Amino acid sequence: NAGVTQTPKFQVLKTGQSMTLQCAQDMNHNSMYWYRQDPGMGLRLIYYSASEGTTDKGEVPNGYNVSRLNKREFSLRLESAAPSQTSVYFCASRPVNAGANVLTFGAGSRLTVL
Amino acid sequence: EDQVTQSPEALRLQEGESSSLNCSYTVSGLRGLFWYRQDPGKGPEFLFTLYSAGEEKEKERLKATLTKKESFLHITAPKPEDSATYLCAVHPPNAGNNRKLIWGLGTSLAVNP
Asked: What residues of chain A score a pLDDT lower than 50?
């Protein structure tokens, strides 16, 4: 059981380049999330998708776009990368009826923007 | 402003030396408080959810407790494999679907053999 799979694990970009972070979950979860984690800032929500076909902004959506391709997949796109987007990105998912509101996280994607 | 503060930032223990990590919050009427463990290079892994003051949850050497203003993660007789960063998050009353979880910065725990 793979859980939440993120690709790539590492990426180096130049300022202005674009890229897409991929996320897939095999737990039949309805909700999916993208977070970034920076030293001294904690985890911050970028975008989330409550269910297939819906997406909403989180705390720090500027500079990002997302696509909920189907129930399994939720991608995060950087259209024109900036050094401020250097971070570790985590995808997470949650079943709709989880009484504990438990998030299952992927292993992370470390992005460096030069 | 709603805040979650974890202390200490870092803690070094000898194997078998029990201690506690603290998570204090200013959220009123929280809908849940969560503890996660994060190993280096990995995503956070869920440990506990607490909903009301007085509630306690246990798992192996870990016990989480909750009061109206803070939560403690007690680690009894820790082992080196307990070394990790422990994150606390709070679900405030006006947020739905985790989209506004408030996360602490974590406590980095190192347990020496």
From this structure: none
Residue A59 structure tokens: 């705390």
Show which residues on chain B lie within 8 Å of chain A, measured between beta carbons: 32, 34, 41-46, 49, 87, 89, 91, 97-101, 103-106
On the question of pLDDT at B1 being above 80, the answer is no
Q: What is the mean pLDDT of residues B21-37?
A: 91
Radius of gyration of chain A (CA): 13
Q: Are A34 and A76 in contact (CB under 8 A)?
A: yes
B58-76 pLDDT, tens digit each: 999 999 999 989 999 999 9
Q: How many CA atoms lie within 13 A of B67 on its CB side?
A: 7
Number of Cβ within a 10 Å radius of residue B16? 11
Q: Which pLDDT score, from 0 to 100, does residue B97 have? A: 53
- The Cβ of residue A87 has, within 10 Å, a number of other Cβ atoms equal to 21
| For residue B30, pLDDT beyond 90 | no
Of the candidates B99, B100, B104, the beta carbon closest to that of A42 is on B104
Q: What per-residue string of b and e applies to B46-59 under the rule 16 or more CB within 10 Å gives b?
A: ebbbbeeeeeeeee
Lateral strand order in the sheet of A19-25: A4-7, A19-25, A74-78, A64-68
